[in-house]
# Entry
Amino acid sequence: MPQTTIYASPRSVGAPEQLPPGVATKELARLFGGNPALAGVTLTIPAGRCVQLTGPNGAGKTTLLRILATAIRPSFGSAAVDGLDVAAHPELVRSRVAYLSHATGLYNDLTAHENLAFAATMLGLEPGTSGEAVRGVVDEIGLADVANARVGGFSAGMRRRLALGRVMLARPSLVLLDEPFAALDADGIALMERLLDRWRRSGVTTLVASHSSEHIAARADATVQLDAGVVASVTGEGVTSRPPAPERTAPPAAEVAT
Amino acid sequence: MTTLRRTATVAWAIARKDAIAELRGKQAAISTLTFGAVTLLLFGFALGPDPHRLADAAPGLLWLDLVFAGLLAVGRFHELETEDGALEQLTLYPMDRRSIYAGKAAIGALAMLALGALLVPLVAILYAVDVVHALPVLALTVVLGSIGFAAVGTFYAGVTVRLRAREVMLPLLVLPIVAPLLLAAVKATTAALAGDPLGELPAWLELLAGFDVVMLIAGAGTYGFLLEE
# Structure
């Protein structure tokens, strides 16, 4: 039986050099109906880094985030969060990961407060402290005035803020954000930027999939570009890809002509 | 927080959340109540004024309504999770997935019991059945039957929740499995209303309780795997 080493949270013990990487994937691949969404991604992201994930539609950004969040399993290869394999220890990984996906995962017939209170219970917050935590989050995401209104009547931006509030209730060591700035207004974008700064200060690894680098570029330690399910390039410090991502070169003339 | 307490807390939160959503939306409740009342009225007219015929038909009609309510309830409580990626979010919380099964089965059984509490008096009035003398045994039968049906229905609602044709598939999968449960429930109800002249009631109730235990264990043990994508 293979021996498994379970590491503590990067925020709890140990010097940085002793810690496992926040995210480590090895030849990670995922097929959907025989088509590869990821086709062999080997990446190492040190704990506590903020990394932007870019690439065109269908590059595999969301698939990578969903595997790390344990929403789907890899078809081949492996992925680990804080040294924990996502396929072998999904329950342990879930307690360390917070994921903001395209879908908000909210219940339309519940109020904003009820949605967050439900999430607090699911996340294991103690009943004595969860009420205060929920109220604090509702205030911070700017929905205190509509906390008792049903979510079914919310705009896309308000729903996005509420989903972000659910991420804030968690105590993760890895935050996965899929197009986090989508549908947000100026206040929402400012909130998102504050949260990115806060996670960075507290040593939380953050992986942000975003087409636009407008809001994230100044905060990202590195940028990983995916294309057709593989790593096309890595820029910035700390993040490694093996085999190294190829140098970006101009496409052949014939390809340009087509 | 101990594992058992955590499981119970999560299950209660899921059941409570589903109850709130359904009480506000009233989508399944209205159709179930309407179907139940109309079925009992129509069969009452069709069977005529003969009290013996009405009394003979009452247990079967009561369970027909409860089965319909149960199918709608377990399907509806899973349909809530299809709103805007809620099911995926639910599966990503750090918890034992048996809690989800426990919460969904509990609220499914409670929905059937709530309808049973409304329909039993209606049956007593429309079908001229004396339910008062049999009330404790009748209540026990409805409780055991509802738990067993919800145990099976919740499992198959988990099987079909990601299917487009889930409303069609759910009854097709559930009804063959619950056939022994329904047989025992109707027989126990008939015996209870008749005063159990043949002394068969304990055997039917034991069958119901045994079915419940087996299905709850099987459902809780396997439901989590259904939620894998």
Summary: Chain A touches chain B at residues 69-73, 91, 94-95, 97, 99, 101-110, 114, 118-119, 121-124, 126-127, 150, 159, 166 (CB under 8 Å).
